[in-house]
Design brief:
The chain is mainly alpha-helical. The chain is built from seven helices and two strands. The chain has a two-stranded antiparallel ribbon. Strand 1 and strand 2 form a beta hairpin. Helix 1 packs antiparallel against helix 4, helix 1 runs parallel beside helix 5 and helix 3 runs parallel beside helix 4. The radius of gyration is 17 Å and the shape is globular. The protein starts with a helix and ends in a 7-residue tail after the last helix.
Length: 198
Amino acid sequence: MSSLAHHFATEAYQNAWANHRLHKACCQLTRAEFAATRTSFFPSIKATLNHILTVDWYYLETLERSRQGLPPDDNPGRHYEPEEPFDDCAALAAAQREADRRLITYCESLEDAQLDDAVLIPRRIGLVRERVRRLLAHVFAHQIHHRGQAHAMLAGTRVKPPQLDEFFCTEEAHLRAADFAELGFTEQAIWGERTSAP
């Protein structure tokens, strides 16, 4: 269970857990609060969370099609039309959960030897060849980057931002137990070992 491919799977689980926690907090906002103009790279929590999702759709489709031996879709830009497909936080959260499950499934199916497989990414300049491991690292970094922005914007609202760093450490398993129950995750399924403190 200590392979690099397994580490990417744990990152996918962490990604889903952090999104779950953040969306649960953001869904306490009114629709007006969710869409309100704030200071960050994107001008609102709504815009930021929509961006995370649409970029996930784009990369997930590319990764999945590559795994199936298919070329990139002829119109990958459709994932950004509209740029913000969801006005409602609950609907956005449901769509993100589905995307997160797809990412977990993809990562769990990987073996170390496949991490250097080539993926063709459609860009404005044409098709670009990338390695699976580098593309996955980019996807996780992109999520963390923008999730942090949404988290900071949430700090300017009446809703307390949730902790998003209680995932990998063994002794913090109890702090994520309720979230895991809601998500249907288990420590055993993710790490393949007992995670009670020694």
